[in-house]
């Protein structure tokens, strides 16, 4: 339970407090969630310290880490795939609180935003470690304060999809796939304890080794081991995630998805 909150005057002060064991707090949707694994007693408020605008710098889309997911949904500058993914969160109240930087830092397995960002080759800018690919941050950059998300121009088509029992339920699987003639990205949520990319499968799709929907289904099925959950078995989640991914790969190949340009 939060006992103390401080709004620092600078990022340097915020980092100093973080080094002393304080937790960063952006929108607070995870920290204040009753089932949150995080139970900090002291938090550093990032509002007003980290930018929250959405715009363009040259060819890149640049999103301040404090941008709310609703502001991403509403931003014409943001890629369509990301706007669609952020809008999958059913509660507008949550979208008005949750931030893109906080969503990335939490790296929850049921994030709609992270798979879409991975498919878009997004990079994050941090105060401690500089700029890095999003996947590198998820693997190695925990604790570094995110200030920006940068999305470069990408070629190909993208599909973002999910399997969910109702609009208010947690998803059983989340898929974001980008495909072009010489590249493929397959990002999944809800199949591990964090969002993942299936780089071994991506290479086989790009090389042409996986030619049919059945081929892609089997490769994805073999590459993931989802945990059981209260409402879905691991076998169901594995099957539905592989099905969504295979269909998305075929859609991208057939130009059935929306262009990102």
Summarize the structure.
The chain is an alpha+beta fold and 261 residues long. The protein is 34% helix and 23% strand. It is built from 10 helices and 13 strands.
Give a written overview of the molecule.
The protein is α+β, with helices and mostly antiparallel strands and 261 residues long. The chain folds into three domains: 4-45; 54-151, Uridine Diphospho-n-acetylenolpyruvylglucosamine Reductase, domain 3; 157-256, CO dehydrogenase flavoprotein, C-terminal domain (Enolase-like, domain 1). The protein has ten helices and 13 strands. The chain has helices at 11-19, 69-74, 80-87, 92-97, 100-106, 113-119, 134-140, 199-207, 213-223, 234-253, and strands at 4-6, 23-25, 42-45, 54-57, 60-64, 123-126, 130-133, 146-151, 157-163, 173-180, 183-189, 196-197, 258-259. A five-stranded antiparallel sheet has the order 4-5-8-6-7. A five-stranded antiparallel sheet has the order 12-11-10-9-13, sandwiched between helices. Strands 1-3-2 form a three-stranded parallel sheet, with helices on one face. A hairpin with a 2-residue loop joins strand 4 (54-57) and strand 5 (60-64). Helix 9 (213-223) crosses helix 10. The protein is globular. It starts with a strand and ends with a strand.
């Amino acid at each position: 339970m939060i006992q103390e909150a401080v709004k620092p005057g600078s990022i340097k002060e915020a980092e100093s407090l973080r080094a002393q064991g304080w937790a960063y707090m952006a929108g607070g949707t995870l920290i204040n969630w009753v089932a949150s694994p995080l139970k900090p007693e002291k938090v550093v408020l990032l509002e007003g310290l980290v930018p929250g605008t959405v715009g363009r710098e040259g060819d890149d889309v640049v999103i301040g880490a404090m941008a709310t997911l609703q502001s991403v949904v509403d931003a014409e500058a943001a890629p369509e795939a990301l706007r669609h993914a952020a809008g999958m969160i059913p509660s507008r109240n949550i979208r008005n609180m949750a931030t893109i930087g906080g969503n990335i830092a939490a790296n929850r397995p049921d994030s709609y935003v992270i798979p879409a960002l991975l498919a878009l080759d997004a990079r994050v800018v941090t105060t401690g470690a500089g700029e890095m690919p999003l996947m590198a941050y998820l693997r190695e950059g925990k604790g570094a304060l995110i200030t920006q998300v940068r999305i470069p121009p990408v070629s190909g088509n993208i599909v973002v999809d999910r399997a969910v029992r109702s609009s208010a339920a947690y998803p059983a699987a989340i898929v974001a796939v980008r495909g072009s003639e010489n590249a493929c990205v397959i990002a999944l949520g809800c199949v591990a304890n964090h969002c993942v990319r299936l780089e071994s499968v991506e290479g086989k799709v790009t090389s042409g080794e996986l030619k049919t929907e059945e081929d892609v289904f089997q490769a994805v099925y073999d590459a993931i081991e989802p945990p059981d959950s209260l409402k879905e078995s691991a076998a169901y989640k594995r099957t539905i995630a592989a099905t969504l991914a295979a269909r998305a790969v075929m859609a991208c190949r057939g130009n059935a998805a929306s262009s990102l340009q």
